[in-house]
UniProtKB/TrEMBL annotation:
PROSITE patterns: ADH_SHORT (PS00061)
Record field: compositional bias (Basic and acidic residues): 489-500
Organism, as annotated: Micromonospora echinofusca
Protein name: 2-C-methyl-D-erythritol 4-phosphate cytidylyltransferase
Any matching Pfam family: IspD
Site (Transition state stabilizer): 36, 43
Similarity comment text for this entry: Belongs to the short-chain dehydrogenases/reductases (SDR) family.
Length: 500
């Protein structure tokens, strides 16, 4: 359908009154039944990356400062499921969870009634597009200051062909002018209400797209298109479930930065942090930084305390020491790890066992032993992966695979432990200047490495945040050069490179 841009009775006046919405409402459309996925439950309730799809979607709008209110239109018979997700996640912006209609048109009408009268911005979004970004939400809302209807779309990478009833090509449109539509679709409330009012008089009215309703019944209204993203996929078919799950695994959150140092002191004074692998590198710098802000820190390692993370009795003793000294454990951090390079076929059994035990079995043991303590404080377990987790690397296959396993462990435990109020996150630093890396790769140009202190700072930001189930990327700032340790520390770190 093309739009007639000639002036008409519905065209915007040359000097329209300034738009002054009272609020911005996100309407999450969750009326699908999941029949194309072959499920017994609506697809929006299917879990991806440890959470129901609709929870991921709602979290984006909950976190968006541009959104004031969220209304959920849920599939018939599943209102209680949606309300339970909202209550458990603590979404404060969700004001209504109501039943949707039999068609998209009917659901939109119900949503408009639920939003009520008055001038406001309304964003309609598919609940099964959980990877919508805050950037897209922000640009939609911003565009409504100028336009009364906004769509989200991306260029078509494929050639589009038009066919007849016999599946024979009748036209091949020019690809450069084609876009693939996504959601959200955003409107000034008066515009979308008027479009549906006019549509009610059309006995042949049927649409699955709200911008299409505006396009047809308010032909003088420009519809602004903003850039969507390839990641903003709609989970419709079985393959989409796997794609979305992988995209969530690869997506990395950003650590919320605290600019006021007094906030660190307020958050960490009196807290107890246990660091496994705290004798050098990231673990050491994290311990020193946390102490500076008033935390009671207990670092454990093979070299300094004889603590082996792969030994349950060692981990139990370490946690008991910290708890008996302070009466609490708020955060447990596992930076311990070893990196052994070499072809898998050439590795001896002892080396393989050591890599697997320290890099994966150890964090699993720490997680199990830490839970009772973290339940008491509603604390956090913090693990560390590596950029190699996204794809196995030749000559350190075991290291790459164990780091990928830690990402899955993070996502699984964050879901398992949500009922206890315990958070689990994973730091993903790029190549970092640590003794372990120097031992494995030798001397490297300083400007190519991230400073361990930078990773420690981001780790602290995550510990005092509300994040859970996230992989947090830490990247080198432009021009950043790792600080050089003094001679004494350099000698000590070198001697500890095998200690973990």
């Amino acid at each position: 359908m093309t739009q007639d841009h000639t002036a008409g009775p519905t065209a915007a006046p040359e000097n329209p009154a300034p738009w002054r919405p009272s609020r911005t409402v996100a309407v999450v459309l969750a009326g699908g039944t999941g029949t194309r996925l072959g499920l017994g439950i609506p697809k929006q309730l299917l879990k991806i990356a440890g959470k129901p799809i609709i929870e991921h979607t709602l979290a984006v709008f909950e976190a968006a400062p541009e959104i004031d209110e969220i209304v959920v239109l849920m599939a018939t018979g599943h209102l209680a499921d949606a309300q339970q997700i909202v209550d458990k996640a603590g979404f404060r912006k969700v004001t209504k969870v109501i039943e949707g209609g039999d068609t998209r048109n009917a659901t939109t009408r119900i949503a408009l009634d639920a939003v009520g009268e008055g001038d406001c911005n309304i964003l309609f979004h598919d609940a099964v597009r959980p990877l919508v970004s805050g950037r897209i939400v922000r640009e939609c809302v911003n565009a409504l200051w100028t336009y009364s209807a906004v769509d989200v779309a991306i260029p078509s990478a494929d050639t589009i062909v038009q066919v007849d009833e016999d599946d024979c090509i009748t036209d091949i449109p020019v690809r450069s002018s084609l876009r693939r539509g996504q959601t959200p679709q955003a409107f000034r409330s008066g515009t979308i209400r008027e479009a549906y009012r006019l549509a009610e008089g059309d006995p042949h009215f049927a649409a699955t797209d709200d911008c299409g309703v505006v396009l047809r019944y308010l032909p003088g209204t420009p519809i602004k298109v903003i850039d969507g993203s390839d990641e903003n996929i709609k989970v419709t078919h079985p393959v989409d479930v796997h794609l979305a799950d992988k995209l969530f695994q690869l997506a990395a959150a950003q650590a919320p930065r605290v600019t006021d140092e007094r906030s660190y002191t307020e958050e960490l004074t009196g807290r107890t942090i246990v660091v496994f692998g705290g004798s050098y590198g990231i673990g050491h710098d994290l311990a020193e930084l946390a102490r500076r802000y008033g935390a009671q820190v207990f670092p454990f390692s093979r070299s300094s305390t004889g603590t082996h993370v792969e030994r349950a009795e060692d981990v139990e003793a370490a946690l008991k020491t910290a708890f008996e000294a302070t009466g609490r454990i708020d955060h447990v951090v596992v930076t311990a790890g070893i990196l052994e390079k070499g072809a898998l076929a050439e590795m001896d059994q002892d080396t393989m066992d050591r890599v697997l035990q320290v890099n994966f079995v150890g964090p699993v043991i720490v997680a199990r032993q830490s839970l009772p303590y973290l339940q008491q404080t509603k604390g956090q377990l913090l693990l560390y992966t590596s950029s190699s987790y996204t794809r196995g690397r030749a000559r350190y296959a075991l290291y790459s695979s164990t780091k990928a396993a830690l990402v899955n462990l993070t996502q699984a435990l964050s879901d398992e432990w949500a009922e206890f109020g315990v958070r689990v996150n994973c730091i993903n630093p790029e190549r970092t200047a640590t003794p372990m890396r120097t031992k494995a790769f030798g001397e490297e140009p300083e400007h190519t490495l991230l400073a361990a202190e930078t990773v420690a700072q981001s780790s602290l930001d995550v510990l005092i945040s509300d994040l859970t189930g996230q992989v947090i990327d830490v990247r080198r700032a432009p021009g950043e050069v790792p600080a050089q340790p003094g001679p004494a520390r350099a000698e000590r770190d070198a001697s500890l490179a095998d200690a973990g």
